[in-house]
Amino acid sequence: MTTAYNAATPGQGPAAEVLAARRTCRELLAILIEENQGIARHDVKLIDEKLTHKRRLTLRLEQMLAEMKQKGSLWKDDPAARQQVVLLGEELAEFQTLARQNAMLLKAAHQLRADLVMAIRDTVDAQAPRVQTYGANGVLNTGSGGTRLLATSI
């Protein structure tokens, strides 16, 4: 068991461990809701701010779930813990739905930006003065300098 997990539920029973996982899941749900609303408002700063926190909470929740799975027999024997696990399952289903929505919104925002950059590039190319050079045979070649997009990743 990890230090972070032990700190969340020192010396408490399985029900308390499940409650700690539920708290983490609810924090993640709140961040996803806020981030999805921020994407709709095009609030890039909010999205950047939430990314680190979202990653940290996701790792913590994965760790808690792995430890709960490993100690399955303990919470299965505790009726209060079993009830909390059912509620945790419902919250995890809601988290998965919001996470899928979040991924779709982020992909759509990324595609929108890429389309906007391409439109700007095409406009610049269309209005750029044509370059004229002499070819190897003394023929005048006319072309554009052409703008290029640099490959980037997010």
Structure write-up:
The longest helix is centred in the last third of the chain and has 49 residues, at 79-127. Mean pLDDT is 80; it is low at 1-10. The two termini are 34 Å apart. Helices cover 74% and strands 6% of the residues. With 154 residues, it is mostly helical. The radius of gyration is 26 Å and the shape is rod-shaped. It has helices at 3-8, 14-40, 44-70, 72-76, 79-127, and strands spanning 130-134, 140-144. The chain has one domain.
Q: What does the secondary structure layout of this molecule look like, with pairings?
A:
Elements: H1 3-8, H2 14-40, H3 44-70, H4 72-76, H5 79-127, E1 130-134, E2 140-144
Helix pairs in contact: 2-3, 2-5
Annotation keywords:
154 residues, mainly alpha, two-stranded antiparallel ribbon, rod-shaped, disordered N terminus
Structural class: mainly alpha
CA-based shape: rod-shaped
What's the number of domains? Answer: 1
Question: For the residues shown, what is the average pLDDT?
Answer: 80
Sheet having the most strands: 2 strands, antiparallel
Encode the helix/strand succession as letters: HHHHHEE
Number of helices: 5
Helix content: over 70%
Strand content bin: 5-15%
Q: CA-to-CA gap between the ends? A: 34 Å
Total beta strand runs: 2
- The residue ranges in which pLDDT falls below 50 over 5 or more consecutive positions are 1-10
Rounded to the nearest angstrom, the radius of gyration is 26 Å
Strand neighbour order, sheet with most strands: 1-2
